[in-house]
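Lab notebook, bench 4. The sequencing result for the construct came back, and we need a structural model before the next group meeting so we can plan mutations. Quick request posted to the team channel:

Model the 3D structure of this chain.
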Amino acid sequence: MKHLFIAAAFALFSTSGWADAEHTSFAFGEPAPAAKATRTVEVVLKDIAFEPSSLQVKAGETVRFVLINQGQLPHEFNLGDKAMHAEHQKQMVAMQGKLFTGGMDHSQMGHGEHGHDSGNTVLLQPGQRGELTWTFRSAAPIEFACNVPGHYQAGMVGPLTIE
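Done. Here's the predicted structure in token form:
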């Protein structure tokens, strides 16, 4: 039953909604239009893993990530450093808590650097496909991760090396 409530809440977020939002730039890069991509990488989201488990890109490269959730749970693909993931996890837990108190306040999702409208995150329901296109600016220690509560801690995270 708890999973049903969580899935219903995630269904409220459109995976294409971030495309209309004002995006944030990060030290490691920023969102880009798919037409600017020089390479496409398919990433499969499973329960509780990514395929591939690590990624490599070049500084200055624009990569179109095609994301496929083959799992039975909602998952996200989020680009960021460890601190960004920790902050986003707090926001995801807070959002989950709203499910059991009679509603959700979307303003609490952290619109800005770590929310779902920053261009560095795509949230997918089971069976859903999505895309994220990113221009990588400079070498930085970042990860791609799922910050749905408990998923990062269970190992749904991988290194992204910017050369």
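The two ends are 44 Å apart (CA to CA).
Will bring this to the meeting.
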